[in-house]
Design a protein that fits this description.
Elements (H helix, E strand, L loop, with lengths): L15 H6 L1 H10 L20 E4 L2 E4 L2 H21 L5 H15 L2
Antiparallel strand pairs: 1-2
Length: about 110
């Protein structure tokens, strides 16, 4: 799927720009949960981790299922609040929201 969000097609992470702009909630979550970073090259991994994790700077922090649930709840709460106060979305944003909604409905 081609997106129109800046940074979404970044070679170092699909949502890089979003997380660069929103480091405080990630940093707070890491601190509150006492998370420890891992070094991906030491594990033979060079990107594209398809399991629960967050990034802060050049560090990667693996999460348990329960931690991801808590972290993702913060994301949905924040996005829900922003969507409720938005007067409209662009066409591209609407397309992305449809993909997200479809994924949620298909669970």
């Amino acid at each position: 799927m081609k997106t129109f969000l800046p940074g979404f097609d970044s070679p170092i992470g699909g949502t890089m720009v979003y997380w660069q702009r929103n480091q405080k909630p990630v940093q707070d979550f890491i601190t509150q949960n006492g998370l420890s970073a891992i070094r991906l090259p030491d594990l033979g991994i060079h990107g594209g981790i398809r399991t629960w994790h967050v990034h802060l700077g050049d560090q990667v922090y693996p999460l348990t299922s329960a931690q991801w649930s808590k972290f993702s709840k913060g994301i949905t709460d924040r996005v829900s609040s922003k969507l409720q106060s938005a007067p409209q979305v662009t066409f591209e944003e609407g397309m992305l929201l449809a993909v997200i909604a479809q994924g949620i409905e298909e669970r």
